[in-house]
Amino acid sequence: MKKCPYCAEEIQDEAVVCRYCGRDLAQSPAPAPVLLRPSEQSAPKPAPAKKRTSPVLIALLLILGVLLAVYVSGSASRRPSSASPTRRPAPTESIVYAKDQVDVVDFECSHDSIGNMIVEGKVRNTSSAYVLQFVELRATIYTGAGAEVNNNTGFIDSDELNPGSTSTFTIYVDDPAGEAERCLAVVEDAYFK
User: How many Cβ atoms are within 10 Å of 102's Cβ, its own excluded?
Assistant: First the structure.
């Protein structure tokens, strides 16, 4: 004897149809569910707990968001306005430094009454395309024998130096002993605007 896989009644081993439920036993049925006693049943698994976002992570994300907003707003204010484009024509000469576009045109030296050698002169922007700014010069004073006495730096009198234009400069160099007899002025640095 065997049990019917559908109704669990006892039937003959050779039976092809269950005499109780009338089902065809020639087909292989799906395995019958196994019934467990209440003591063997496992407790229902609890639903997985939702992951909570850490308050520290939220605070970090907020700080990063604020920093990004400050950076973006700051860079937007540094951009030139669309009303005044700052495009410059391409240079025709190969430029390495802005200071290479400035020449000292003329200079002279004189002593004042309080122990300074005054170096005055003019510079010219030799570029045909670039506006220069922060043009810095170095004035060096020498004895009659060629020994350096002192030097100092200073800027040209204009804020900007347009292409082809000139500007003046005045640099005071300490010479308390009054031993300087010659001077030299050279371009120290400059920037493209």
Answer: 25
Distance separating alpha carbons of residues 139 and 183, to the nearest angstrom: 7
- Cβ count near 189 (within 10 Å): 15
Which pLDDT belongs to residue 33? 56
Distance CA 85, CA 71 (A): 23
Which 3 state secondary structure label does DSSP give 75? helix
Domain covering 98-192: architecture: Sandwich (2.60)
Beta bridge partners of 104: 123
For 115-143, write each residue's pLDDT tens digit: 999 999 999 999 888 899 999 999 999 99
* Farthest CA pair distance, the chain: 137
Distance CA 35, CA 38 (A): 9
| CATH 2.60.40.3230, the chain: domain bounds | 98-192
151 phi, psi to nearest 5 deg: -150, 165
